[in-house]
Design brief:
Distance between the termini: 35 Å
Number of strands: 5
Oligomer: single chain
CATH class: Alpha Beta
Radius of gyration: 16 Å
Helix content: 40-55%
CATH architecture: 3-Layer(aba) Sandwich
Low-confidence stretches: none
Largest sheet: 5 strands, parallel
Length: 196
């Protein structure tokens, strides 16, 4: 039986008696919109933009600028951090997996790369929790994402906020917000293989 990660997240939130520091890995503005709306009342959030998979660099800049626009319009108390564009990291983990279907082993390695960098940053900068916006997409496997988060929680000794942000109409709400705020909407996952 699959774990209900949305219920698990709600239990964690219910148990809080203060607003802990959360490092939220964000893939883009659209995915972040409903997630930030949902979490901002319960956490002191810093958003981390670390996506070496995005190709080309112009696309990376569009997605970063859209995320910045969202934060400026709706959440100007939230800090945004960009570690920088490092496509060589994605190329390294993709070696031998170039022909994998989307959603396969290459994607799992990509999730791990981005979540590990987030966990490491959270651990080194005194965050109490970390998580990612990735589970808001119906194309992303929340079971896989949460298992990676659990592994990294132990490795870096920082709590992972289990989640499935597509639940409770999260994906639908992100689309509504992106239209309302006129956010740039990408047409592919991000990496060169998803374009091809």
């Amino acid at each position: 039986m699959k774990t209900n990660y949305n219920s698990l997240m709600e239990e964690i939130i219910k148990s809080l008696d203060y607003k802990p520091k959360l490092l939220l890995h964000a893939c883009c503005g659209i995915c972040s919109s409903s997630v930030l709306e949902r979490l901002s009342k319960d956490f002191n959030i810093t958003v981390l933009f670390f996506n070496p998979n995005i190709y080309p660099v112009e696309e990376y800049k569009k997605r970063y600028d859209t995320l910045k626009k969202l934060i400026n319009l709706k959440h100007n108390d939230i800090k945004l951090i960009d570690i920088g564009y490092k496509p060589e990291m994605f190329d390294e983990i993709s070696k031998g997996l170039e022909d994998e279907r989307e959603g396969g082993k290459r994607c799992t390695k990509c999730y791990y790369l981005r979540l590990e960098e987030s966990a490491k940053y959270a651990s080194e900068n005194d965050f109490e929790f970390f998580c990612t916006t990735l589970s808001v997409s119906p194309h992303k496997d929340s079971e896989r994402l949460n298992n990676i988060g659990k592994t990294l929680e132990s490795k870096y000794r920082v709590k992972y906020l289990y989640s499935d942000f597509k639940k409770k109409n999260g994906f639908k709400r992100s689309n509504e917000l992106s239209r309302e705020l006129d956010l740039y909407r990408q047409k592919y996952c991000g990496c060169k293989y998803s374009i091809w």
